[in-house]
Design a protein that fits this description.
Layout (H helix, E strand, L loop, with lengths): L1 H13 L3 H7 L4 H10 L4 E3 L13 H12 L3 E6 L19 H7 L1 H8 L4 E6 L27 H21 L6 E5 L3 H5 L11 H24 L6 E8 L3 H6 L4 H4 L1 H4 L3 E5 L10 H16 L14 E6 L8 H18 L4 E3 L28 H24 L5 H8 L7
Parallel strand pairs: 1-8, 2-3, 3-4, 4-5, 5-6, 6-7, 7-8
């Protein structure tokens, strides 16, 4: 017995010994590895509209692989008619006329959906809603049709696209363990399509957006009702971004004017307005918690969902055009810790490769983990170290307790990780 302890201790010390340690202690190492691969480690990143790349792979596949290699089991990306333009520059296929076509006919989209990510956060916009933009231009209004009201023809077409996509995911990934969260980009900029936060909301557009969001939720719910499935989950989410003007000014926003009507499965908060203004960790934590609490106050209890918070941080970040690399990392750590303390189920950094170019200087804005020369930034190393510490903790916890830690146990421990301190 003493020899076994010495052997397993040495293996644990020098790496590669957890599976053998599990086996020697009567636990199934394959089962343990699957639990580790599937665990929600909370933090993640995303890939949309990157302005550079380094391999012969497509932009989407290259960035997905980079995210996986960093240690993440979560991929956030976009599925919409812009797949062949600013989103990923994939080859245009005129036969792709719906979200289902995109999922089944576009090779890079198929490839990343089949990769061994556990969690997928996907912006989904219907082809039936899209008006092609002039070459080289990006107009968000061209992918929504509820400005001034939402005609039934568009509502019905979007319902069918999302119903078909959800049905396909449920069939294709049945018993895969994958979890899909289908949502959209910053909803308050759809509601205020003119990007002027000082203007009052147009009432017809607000009513149109409510209908749009209800259609999205219903399509997913109906497909889940109709399609028999096991060990695969799909949820709807709404993303909000202008939260402070609702809290402080009483302005109409997606948070205070849409969430109560729809009661979505989840809410994603693109949290720049309660993270980036603050100059200290204490102020950022207080501001972010106020925002998250405010969003949560508009959700009603809902059956059929896992226990826990239903609001997450869908975007945060500090571009190097305004902050040094060290400050970018420090402020990211503040945001991660604040999110963990509140109980956010996901905290997603914007983003792996930068997607914005300064219009005046032509320079990269610096929303990145890996810069345009291929250099990994401090925040990349923070994430990688966090994943290593997180996986190690969950591993040890399982060996000691016979099960993985619950979410609160994990997040309490994560606050002590060296990566965040």
């Amino acid at each position: 017995m003493k020899l076994m302890y010495i052997l397993t201790g040495a293996l644990l010390l020098f790496g590669g010994g957890f599976a053998l340690y599990a086996l020697l202690n009567g636990k199934n190492p394959d089962h343990l590895n699957q639990l580790l691969d599937d665990y929600n480690y909370v933090i993640g990143t995303q890939t949309v509209g990157s302005k550079y790349q380094f391999t012969d792979e497509t932009m989407l596949v290259e960035t997905a692989k980079e995210i996986k290699n960093m240690g993440s089991n979560l991929l956030k990306f976009s599925m919409n008619p812009r797949y062949c333009t600013e989103n990923y520059g994939l080859p245009k296929n005129d036969s792709i006329k719906s979200l289902l076509d995109l999922a089944t006919m576009e090779p890079s989209v198929k490839k990343v959906l089949d990769m061994d990510f556990k969690y997928y956060h996907i912006w989904v916009y219907g082809f039936s809603q899209y008006t092609e933009e002039p070459e080289g231009e990006k107009r968000d209004t061209n992918q929504i049709k509820f400005i001034g009201g939402y005609p039934d023809e568009y509502a019905n077409a979007l319902y069918q696209e999302l119903y078909d996509l959800t049905s396909y995911f449920l069939k294709k990934y049945n018993n895969s363990g994958k979890i899909f969260y289908l949502g959209h980009w910053e909803g308050d900029w759809h509601l205020r399509w003119h990007f002027d936060r000082t203007k009052p909301v147009d009432i017809q557009t607000l009513q149109g957006m409510k209908k749009w969001e209800l259609v999205r939720q219903k399509a997913i719910d109906d497909a889940k009702r109709d399609i028999s499935h096991e060990n695969v989950e799909i949820y709807n989410y709404i993303e909000v971004n202008l939260v402070k003007i609702g809290m402080e000014e009483g302005a109409a926003t997606v948070t205070n004017s849409v969430l109560e009507v729809v009661n979505p499965d989840y809410v994603s908060y693109s949290a720049y307005d309660t993270t980036n203004p603050y100059k200290s960790e204490e102020a950022l934590t207080e501001g972010l918690h106020e925002g998250l609490d405010y969003i949560e106050s508009f959700l009603q209890p809902k059956s059929g969902l896992p226990e826990g918070k239903r609001v997450w941080i869908g975007e945060y970040g500090s571009p190097t055009v305004h902050y040094s690399e060290e400050e970018q990392n420090e402020r990211s750590v503040w945001s991660i810790k604040a999110g963990l303390k509140w109980g956010s189920p996901f905290i997603l950094y914007w983003e792996l490769y930068n997607n914005e170019i300064d219009k005046e200087t032509g320079e990269q804005v610096g929303y990145w983990m890996i810069d345009d020369s291929g250099e990994k930034q401090k925040i990349w190393y923070t994430y990688q170290q966090f994943y290593e510490e997180a996986r190690s903790f969950v591993n040890r916890y399982y060996l000691d307790h016979g099960d993985v830690p619950d979410f609160d146990t994990f997040r309490d421990k994560a606050l002590e990780f060296n990566a965040l301190n």
